[in-house]
Amino acid sequence: MKEHFEDNTYGLLKAMHHTKIAMDYFEDVSKNYHNGAKHIMLQYAQKCKWILDNIRHRVPSDFAASIDNDMKDSLFLDALEDRLIHFSPQQREMIEQIIELMSKGETIEVSYLEK
Fold it and tell me: The pTM is what?
């Protein structure tokens, strides 16, 4: 009998997001390889899929559905993170404030000045 994960913590969801991102990148990288290297990359992707499926089977079904919904945009979120890393601390703080306000239902109006 499988042990069930009852704790739907933020950390578990983050681990699953990163595993999904890794799976997507292994699949993408495999397109640039042939024969053995391609097979190895696809095996790594399959191992990531196994991890994700195994966790899904150990959480309550409503949480599994929520996980699937949250993870469909994993690469989009990863792409945003790639850009945010290059922002200054002030820019990151501003983005964080905007996201916080939007998450509370506030309407945000953005304008910019051309250089």
Answer: 0.71
Backbone angles phi, psi at 29, to 5 degrees: -60, -35
Q: For the purposes of burial, counting CB atoms within 10 Å of the CB of 24, is it exposed (0-12), middle (13-18) or buried (19 or more)?
A: middle
Question: Are the beta carbons of 9 and 63 closer than 8 angstroms?
Answer: no
Helix axis angle, 35-56 relative to 10-30, nearest 10°?
160
- Cβ–Cβ under 8 Å, residues 78 and 85: no
Give the Å distances, CA to CA, from 107 to 37, 38, 102: 49, 47, 6
At 2-21, the pLDDT tens digits run 555 555 577 888 888 899 99
